[in-house]
Amino acid sequence: MDLSDLPPELLETIAKKLKVQKDYIRFRAVSSAFQTSTPKTPKHLPSQLPWLMLPRRTDQHPDSSIRSFLSISDAKIHLVNLPGDSDHHRRCGSSHGWLVILDETPCISIVNPLTQQTQHLPPLSSFLNVISYAPGDSGREYTIKTLDDDVYTCSSKEMRDSFIKKVIFSSSPSDEDADYYALAILNQTGDLAYCKKGNQRWKFIDDANSYCEDVVYYKDCFYAVSKHGTIAKCDVNGLTTDVSFIETQRQNGGDMQYLVKWKDELLLVTRYTELEFNMDHNKLDIVYKTGEFQVYKLILNGLKWEGVSELDGYALFLGENSSMAFCASDFPGCKKDCVYFTDDYSEWNYDGANGNHDLGVFDLGNGCLEALSCYPEEFYSGRRWPPPIWITPSLH
Predict the structure, then answer these.
(1) For residue 71, what are the contacts with CB-CB under 8 A and spacing of at least 6?
(2) In angstroms, rounded to a whole number, what is the distance separating the alpha carbons of residues 340 and 225?
(3) Which spans in 120-276 are helix H?
(4) From the CA atom positions of the chain, what is the Rg in Å?
(5) Phi, psi (5° rounding) for residue 97?
(6) CB 52 within 8 A of CB 70
(7) Torsions phi, psi of 181, nearest 5?
């Protein structure tokens, strides 16, 4: 019989058996009957392996809105039209399949590249430490107060590039009937600020200052980590914010800390980098590369971080994205017990910086670091703005 003549309820049942996003898209493309029998934005699909959003190609026009996404499962590049992302924008995080995008206005946009859905978070001018915003005052548009009550001004470009380090969501913004929280890590002050869907202003989490290395949403709370591996547990679900602390032993060494939800536990990942200083034509060049990662598991009954040398078959994805863990055996091309990383040293991620982007794969088992084999360096040589970022492709 003609496949289009299959009963709609049977087509729907078959579609719910599909777990890979591209298979679901191809299933719906068979005929109009397949499309009408299945939702365009399925809610049954599990999280997909992240794609790597690439910088603009060296031969691509600066005004082009086509963006390239690398799938490590099949080493293919997917082209997506993304009008809201240009060379004048900066990405400050990806979470639950959504990008957070800043430009030289106070606007903070979030966009799902696959569905083209767009929403807005409260603007930069609504942070409590932003005293004023004067769009006509070129180079001094923002007036900001520090923790010591000092006041300084900065330009719209400086706000875009350095005010926010990363934004993390509690859940996907795609569900129109559900609320979600967004949490922003601020670069210069180390503050944490959050907002709820529909809020007009950001609120500070006053007791969690300096817990600004990374944040993950875990068991209905935001968990934030300090430079020394201590944890602030932030519950923002009530009328007031409740902050408690997990005082583990201090971690010594390392340049960056990440928190990752791994199965039903928390991991702390410490990143070690190596800096090189080169003088060329009377110009100081700073080039950095990741040397290694060390991974620890939180032991709550002992309030300590316990070192681990394998991830039980999982792979971690770190960078400017919300830190993520995936079971490698569920996805072809994904290596188990490895850390996939991109560079997120924001002060050196600008177009024109020397060297290539610091990204690759670190194998916890043998301690070896290797390049991301499917990364198309011939098209993306040099450090280009914006830097690569991991994002989970999501249709919902």
Answers:
(1) 49, 51, 77, 78
(2) 20
(3) 156-162
(4) 22
(5) 85, 5
(6) yes
(7) -115, 145
CB 321 within 8 A of CB 389: yes
Length of the chain, in residues:
396
Per residue in 2-33, pLDDT tens?
777 888 899 899 998 887 777 888 888 888 88
What's this model's pTM, rounded to 2 decimal places?
A: 0.89
Cis-peptide, bond into residue 386, ω within 30° of zero = yes
> CB-based contacts of 381: which residues, under 8 Å, 6+ apart?
58, 356
Contacting residues for 384 by C-beta, under 8 A, at least 6 apart: 55, 56, 58, 351, 357
Quote the Cα angle for 213-325-254, to 5°: 35
Contacts of 167 (CB under 8 A, 6+ apart): 92, 93, 95, 100, 108, 121, 182, 183, 184, 185
Q: Concatenated DSSP letters for 112-150?
A: -TTT--EEEEPPGGGSTTEEEE-TTSTT--EEEE-TTS-
